[in-house]
Amino acid sequence: NSRSAIAATGGGGSGSTTQYAKLVIKDGWNSSATAESDDWVANQIIAAVEFDSSDSNGNSGGDSSPRGTINLISETTDASATALTFGTKGDVTGAPTERLRITSAGNVGVGTDNPLAKLDVRGDIELNSTYPVIRFKDSDSENDFSILGGSGLFRIYDEDATASRLSINSSGNVGIGTDSPESKLNVVHQITANEYQYPLVV
Length: 202
Description:
0% helix; elongated
């Protein structure tokens, strides 16, 4: 049988020392402060939601070994700017490892606690669909260019002109002006509408 409880720490942050709960909520008092006016420390946990388990066969459960966490983190010494972090871990003792962070600026980091862009991923990314696509838009919200994959063809696609600009097929052939390159480098260019296409084949 499982039990659920919500435990909130006291003013000094000591809280309950025995928590056999699926969910633990800790309040936002500076637990390391000796006075209410004491400064926060950058990257300090202000408040937290911990997901615990009392499974006796595992290495989780209790204050020091929750299975997962959602933490509110101070980014400044007065906690005027905060980040939100998400942590998980395997069947090991100790605190969960931070996996994702959302900063006060709105940047999202995966595998980093200092995301330098709206999305900062430190590691591999997999796009899995029939025709995976990454679209690039500027401030006018137009789809200027896209990177597409699928059916053995990688393409850089001009959304405004609705035309492929560069294609690489599964044989490693590169096509410019064509989606069907027949050699290592196949360039097709039409100078005017009335002139013949002069292909460059290498």
